[in-house]
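Hey,
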Amino acid sequence: MQRMMRGFIRGVDAVNYRLGRVMMYGIFVLMGVLLWSSVNKVFFLPSLWTLEMAQFVMVGYYVLGGPYSMQMGDHVRMDLLYGDWSVRKKAWVDMFTVLLLIFYLVVLLYGAISSTAYSLGYWQTEPLSYLFGVVTGTEEIGRLEQSSSAWRPYLWPVKVVMIVGFFLMILQCLSELCKDVLRLKGHEI
C-alpha cells in the first residue's frame, strides 16, 4: 500500500510540477495581451478580443497553476497557529481540510462538466454521459455556445481548461492526503 501511495504521489506531483512550471509563464502571455490592448487603444482602434482573451488566459493561469501552488505549499495558511504545531498535528489538520477541499472541488468539477456540456449544445439532465459520448463519438455536438460580447468567442475551450484544472487539483489534493497519511505513519516523504 505504501508503495502504491508513493507511486501515486510521484506521478501526480510530476505532472502538476511540470504543468505548473509552464503555467508560471502564463502571466507573460496575460501581460502581452494587456499590452497589446493598451497600445491599440492609444495609437490604433481598440481591439474587441483583448478583454475576454485576458480573462481566458487568467482562468488558465489560475486554474492550471493551482495544483502546482498547492504542491509547493504556497497557498494561504493561518501560520499564526499552524507554524508552531508538530508534524503530526499539522498532518491531522491538513487531512481534515484537504477532505473539505476535495468535496468543494468535486462540486466545482461537476459544475464545470455541466457548463461544458451546455456550451457544446446539450440541454438535458445527464452531462456526464453526454460528454463521455462526445469523447467516444456516440454523441453529436449541438449548437455551440458563444460569448455575448462583440467578439463572440466559443466558450467550450475555456470550460474544458476548467475541467482539466479542477481534475488535476483533485489529484493533487489526493496526493497531499497520501502524504499526510504517510507522515502520520512516521514515514519520510
